[in-house]
Amino acid sequence: MGYVGLPTALALHESGARTTGLDVSAERLGTIASGEPDLVEADRERLSRARGDTGFTLTTDQSSITEADAVIICVPTPLDEHLGPELSPLRAACRAVVEQARLGQVLILTSTSFVGTTRQLLAEPLAERGFTVGEDVFVAFSPERIDPGHPEHTQRATPRVVGGSTWRCAEKARAVLELLTPSLHVVSSAEAAELTKLYENSFRAVNIALANEFAGICGTLSLDPVEVTKAAATKPYGFMPFYPGPGVGGHCIPCDPQYLLWQLRAARVTAPLVDKAMTLIADRPRHVVTRALETLSAAGRGLAGARVVVIGVSYKPGVADLRESSALEIITGLLALGAKVDYHDPMVGHVLLRGGRVLENVPEPHGAEWDLALVHTVHPGYDYDWVRQCPIVLDATYTFTAAPGRALV
User: Fold this and answer.
1) Considering 45, 145, 357, 387, which has the largest number of Cβ atoms within 10 A of its Cβ?
2) What integer pLDDT is reported at residue 153 of this predicted model?
3) Exposure string over 42-52, b if 16+ CB within 10 A, otherwise e
4) Domain holding 247: CATH number?
5) What positions does the domain UDP-glucose/GDP-mannose dehydrogenase C-terminal occupy (predicted)?
6) What range defines the domain where residue 387 resides?
7) Are 218 and 211 in contact (CB under 8 A)?
8) Residues involved in catalysis
9) Which residues, 6 or more positions from 332, have their beta carbon under 8 angstroms from its beta carbon?
């Protein structure tokens, strides 16, 4: 019942389906029951309507799986320290679903993983239990398409891809997913749907790496990369705008292509373009730290002992989500070079850095307190005029016009 599961459950409930939200964390369910989770306004309103409705329940009891006609699995699929799949949560969730499965159920996996995951973790274990997949139970994969912080990208307006273990599985899954969106694209197999998700985010990773590279090219030529990108985007075909930034965060782009690369390495196959893009993306926060050092040096002082404020630490505007946020690596890098670092983010009260260090948000900043302001994430609806008081502003978003004399990453 996280960033994907909760909005999905709320949308299903709003469609009229009796919906149970299952999570292993009683603390998470308590946050949801209190109405306090991080949600866009539309989902917050849905939660307000769902709370207290007998058609919407929250539980940690895995036996509730058996009572459902359809089960949608939405659990995290992070990376381990070697950039390989860390599938413990997904394996545990699928194991529980297989153990509790009954005749007639539709089981839909949405968590991003390598090609073959749906078969390995659901279809094959169900067959070992004696079920005939496609006749007794129906198994499918439909990658999640949730865009936190962008309320215009509603689930209803966003097409979904679905692929089943059999064609009948796909049709059964389609009937469930039509409660979320009328726009469904059915592919030939669960494996095709799994690769679709990996392709989507590998595409984004490659183009973000290119956008960052062009930002460097524009800097060399004393041009504005945002202006150049917007101009290129006027072409009505053959171009899609991507914009440079301080790094990528969330689950999709930093993690999903690594699942593909891990699987290909195991098969002794290379994907050099995707591999290089992911290396460049991983290096981006270190480049931002280097630019902070260069910017201060150009003003006649070093980074050691400098007072730096990082503006915005969530991975994207409009959310309080710190997953894989490049701000955390940037802060760690600045601290390692001797800077005294604070941050201001009206949506994030504190951050936990690698090694256990905790930083608290500066709620009422005054720009003159710092030698350098590093703009990482700018949330809509908040006042950032105080940044004008900062003597040096390094804009890693390339769009922070509130400080016209800013330096760019």
Assistant:
1) 387
2) 81
3) bbeebbeebee
4) 1.10.1040.10
5) 309-402
6) 284-408
7) no
8) 252
9) 353, 354
